[in-house]
Amino acid sequence: MKHIRNFSIIAHIDHGKSTLSDRLIQATDIVSDRDFKDQILDSMDIERERGITIKSQTVCLPYRAKTGQHYSLNLIDTPGHVDFSYEVSRALASCEGALLLIDASQGVEAQTLANMYLAMEHDLEIIPIINKIDLPSADVERVKAQIEEDLGLDPDTAILASAKEGIGIEEVLEGAVNLLPPPEGDPDAPLKALIFDSHYDPFRGTIVHFRVIDGKIRAGDTIRFMFNNATYRVEEVGIFRIVRVPRKELTAGEVGYMIAGIKTVSDTRCGDTVTLHSHPCDAPMSGFKETKPVVFSSIYPVASDAYEELAVAMEKLKLNDAALIYEKDSSVALGFGFRCGFLGLLHLEVVQERLEREYDLSLILTAPSVQYEITLNDGTTEIIDNPALYPDPTLIQNTREPYIRAAIIVPDRYMGAVMKLCLERRGINKNYQYLTNNRLEMIFEIPLAEVVYDFYDRLKSVTQGYGSFDYDIIDYRDTDLVKLDILINGDRVDALSQLVHRERSVMRGRRACEKLKEEIPRQMFKIAIQGAIGGKIISRATVSPFRKDVTAKCYGGDISRKRKLLEKQKKGKKRMKMVGQVEIPQSAFLSVLKSEGD
Ligand SMILES: Nc1nc2c(ncn2[C@@H]2O[C@H](COP(=O)(O)OP(=O)(O)OP(=O)(O)O)[C@@H](O)[C@H]2O)c(=O)[nH]1
Fold this sequence. Notes:
By secondary structure, the protein is an alpha+beta fold. It has five domains: 4-179, 3-Layer(aba) Sandwich (Rossmann fold), CATH 3.40.50; 192-276, Translation factors (Elongation Factor Tu (Ef-tu), domain 3), CATH 2.40.30; 295-365, Elongation Factor G (Translational Gtpase), domain 3 (Alpha-Beta Plaits); 372-479, Alpha-Beta Plaits (2-Layer Sandwich); 483-591, Elongation factor 4, C-terminal domain (Alpha-Beta Plaits, 2-Layer Sandwich). It is built from 14 helices and 33 strands. The strands form seven sheets. The protein has an eight-stranded antiparallel β-sheet. It has a six-stranded mixed β-sheet with strand order 2-3-1-4-5-6, with helices on both faces. Strands 21, 22, 23, 24, 25 and 26 form a six-stranded antiparallel β-sheet that branches. A hairpin with a 5-residue loop joins strand 10 and strand 11 (231-233). The relative contact order is 0.08. It binds guanosine-5'-triphosphate. Guanosine-5'-triphosphate (GTP) is lined by residues 11, 13-19, 51-53, 80, 131-132, 134-135, 162-164.
């Protein structure tokens, strides 16, 4: 155990975590350079394209230190986005140390701080690393000052690195060996192991990633998940060397995987404790919580006959994504689909992209909603996330909505712009403090519903890219909610209904009408678009009919050109949805979601 080091790299998005992981893997020779895929840990397509890490993957690196001693370095990869902060927390609970990566030109940002606090909660030894020192805009001294004053860490321990150029990599490995403590734990105690991740393998079922805290686990053992008391017989245990390498047993301090005939990843819970059925440990690890979705939206196929395909795709996706929940849903306008729950807006976008790309589906998503607690006059309380299920307002006694605590870090010259944005979003400024280099940390309490649309984009734009943001849900508070409906030629389009705060409803209604007007193509008749609350119309826009026959031009002339045009039209149709007499393009549904820009 003395020669094991378990650690994660934590960083703000884009500070170079994946690049550094790749370098560490390369430096320890477990894959030959020729086979080395760039950013081997970010194996999913979308992750690579968007450059963000979503699913953690772990690797065990054999390393021979300068002293000649051999070490096993378990690098536990963590997702970098706020939507996945619980996964980060569980991964950190499996570690003794963390490498805190800071971009030399960007400095300390909101998630740098948030991640460092998480690491401190788990009592981890933290090594600061200043990355991207090769950049012309790198300012090492400034970042060192931030490390000292904003993070309270010793700047002299910071390692200077460029993951891209391969500078400082050996120092990082030596730092892990010399500065991080080895794991503690009792190999002879009853088995206690922490699940920090799982993924699905089509041939072997669920692969559970875990850290052994105490005891031993080997193939043939009957194990028990302490959350739901489910028992399984272990078929295989082993470690990650990019590929899985089976081992006879894993003991206290080690990190690896197990295969135990588990059908889907939702049977295992990130954060749960595994023990032996015959000889259990006394108590599970503390801090377990189930990940709860906070943002909800319905997904419909554009072509109604693609429902079955969507159902199959959802099922497959769910195998690998325990956080995704869904149930069947139906809409008058859009037919059959699924009501889904996500960890946040990024999670939603990732799911949508995967469905569209990997399963070649064309989808319509309804406006994302948070969960409201609604108490009715008869004293019962309902949790509502779907506008379609919103009760008759006369029956409602009281409605509450979730609030977040948002931490925003910006250069102080943007203070006014951030304040304006947050106040517009019904935020309450709770606190602010100066950090080094004229930067401010501003704390707001804001309704989650105001953040799920486009808050992060807006923050980036009003701060010219300098603002960074992190949030936690804190509580539910009283709110004044209304249901905004959209009518097209008098027909209510249920998929466009939204639950909004009364204060914001008129503006939202107006924006939705304007956007729809831009998106809905002219047709042979006039199209009236209206926003309504209850029976009352609050906004309207009109798409006027064609004035002349635009297809007339195409008659006569080249037949192949005409055919091409027809084909193009047919393709275009696929992305249109008929609502009553009116054809609405898929983009119109999306534009309503994004109608928040101020
Ligand atoms: N110049 C320079 N660029 C770097 C360095 N390290 C990483 N980058 C670049 O920074 C960008 C982000 O790097 P990633 O490794 O994907 O960042 P990440 O922290 O893993 O991002 P998430 O996965 O979203 O958390 C990429 O374009 C990298 O090529 C470095 O040392 N120098």
